[in-house]
User: Fold this.
Amino acid sequence: MLARAEARVAAVRRARRRDARVSRRSPRILRRGRLVSGRRVVSGRRVGAGHAVLTARRLIHSGFALLLLTVATVPLATVYQDPALVTLAITACVVGSLLAGIAAVRAWPALLVVVATLVAYLLVGVPLAVPSQAAFGVLPTGGGLRALVIGTVTSWKRMLSVDLPLGRYEALLVPALVVLLAAVVVAVSLTLRSRRPGLAVVPAVAVLAAGIALGGTTTTLPLAVGGAFVVVALAWGVWSGLGAGALSMTRVITAALLVAVAVGGGTAIAMTRPPSSDRAVLRDAVAPPFDPDHYVSPLVGYRTSVLPPNAVEPMLRVTGLPDGALLRVATLDSYDGLAFTVGDGRDTASSGTFARVPSAVDRGTVDGERVSLGVSVEGYRGVWLPTAGDVSRVRFDANAPDTDYYLNATTSTAALPGGVVSEERYTVDTAIAGATSLDRLAELRPGSATQPVSSALPAALAATVKAHSDGATTPGGRLAALTRWLRSGYVSDSGDGEPFSAAGHSAGRIQKLLTSSPVLGDAEQYAPALALLARQVGFPSRVVVGYAKSGSDDDTSTAGAAGSTTFTGADLTARVEVETSGGSWVSIDPNPEKGPVPPTETTPSESVARPQTVLPPPPPEKNDAAVSQNRDGQKASREPAAAGWLEVLAAVARVGLPIVLVLGIVTAPLWAIALARLLRRRRRRAADTREVAASGAWDEVRDTIDDAGFDVDASATRTEIAALVGTPEVQRLAAETERSVFSTQVLDSADVDRLWREADAAKLSVIALAPTRWQRLRFRLTARSLWASARRLLNDLRPRRSRTRMGR
Assistant:
């Protein structure tokens, strides 16, 4: 028997030397290795002109891979919502499949495939991902190639700070092209060149994960997309198993275990981490691009705008604005007892959030007249970009096509972080609703928007509502009566020839407005007062600062050419918007008409006295309209800054934890096998320490021999198995184990440690017999020895049951 084993080992060595000579003579050799009765047979055959690669079975595998990639692209479609992505996806599939097919037929190495993919990316990238820079729509240009190359690195982060949908904005289609083209090339190459085409599911999973991670917190039909992906993957796996022959019991048990692990893991995640309405995506981990809390409210600069010298200075020239409409500067809905400010989504969802707008904003069905306004900036300065109505698009002058602006779609407030400069020209596509009469206002019912909680309010709000509601019993009737009462007041900006009226709109100043007789103030007090009174009767409200023609003060606002209006600083005003039960916001003008002011019943000292509880904000340093000043220093003095690394860690945990859980379920077969092997090794190691003979070390090597594919007879001895394998390390361990088992010598802990070190060396020598790295990795991940151990256990139990039956 020993002679036969030596002959087998010599045959294996001769086959290896022959295979090495053939491989050196021809680099285009497809080598296959198989094990038959303990002998490794290595054969080589020359690949023809493609018939051996592009077989019908491999083409079907490629079809399944492309279908799976198509399903995985659906989340990306919800991110862009533009037909350009459909064209990009189809072209990427065609180009990537052709490239992978040619590479498989010509047996290109991996490096050459990567270079060819980069060349194809540069050729088709400009018309697909940067269509605005393509000549005749299909030819790349120098500027387009530059945008494509730079976008390959920078567009990933940029797309996370841009509001969805992305459309064709700048070069934000570049990430989609990179992901899809790379996934198609890898997937088709695996189906045509790998002996395990099922690995092509990995690129599809990567595309699906990219679409989810780069998307928004909500998506379209997530269950349908996930279900379709699983169905296609399972159909592919079933077809692959049937095509390879009858399903064995091992495959059935393995599939059942995978399904059990997936179902159990999914159930555990659902129980410990119930799904929420919003998903955690990478977009949540990116810092907000624009924070309105860093800027002073534009209403604070009201007096500096309406008083000389800014009162007569031209600020903005607008064309296409309907008569009586307000040119909005900003919408203010957060009140802290000092000033009305621009809120954001951190306070409440009704405040909305600012995001960079790549294209048009989908407004759906809106009320009002759709118009296109032309705005030319003259003396106006500030961070807030003047617009009007429900904005759907802002287009800047051709000389500044890449100007980034941020829009709060909820409040239609736009901003330029760098500030609006002189001679800035842009066009606003919007829908402007008409004014609301008092009779119509009495019929309205309050909406349901939740607004930021005010920390300090005037004490006279409830008494004012009770005293000036004129007996109205409905919220709309009370709001109309309060508006009528405020309009009966008087206007004073404390200008030349006008009675003194204190500036500001703090809680103390609004308290003075509501309790003085006659009511005296200007738009800076009347609009905040009505907004707070509207909230008192149940209406969600907000203050809108902007420019409008006064109608009775023609000397402060001049008309230009036909259809154009020039606004001066004196045209700055403030109005109020309230939400109705239908979800729409209606505009109310609470400001009285200017007229003679009767003597007040309060002394000047009383009118200028500051409230004891709330102090007004300091006046702006510059006499600019709607000045926006940085408030970083004020914020730092009010609240401590949170540790930046804690915020980053929390964001990474929100995004990474679900991904780790999903990867743990997907890779369960791999780590489950590794865990089972580790537990088996620890059990054997502990047994060898307790027993007088160390046979567990040999069992560990025997399992490695089984995993390596050697077909060893169950009755073979250790010496026969060692001779079959042929490595000196295995033969030395077999001899040591035989002496340990059959001798009377008792092993101590040092001897056991030495045997296990020799076992580790013997395992490495067996794994090193594999000719390729992939085969060596497969030996480490296979579960063949685990199944063999289970079969040996069953074989040991069968005679025992037979003897029991015979005894009975």
The radius of gyration is 39 Å.
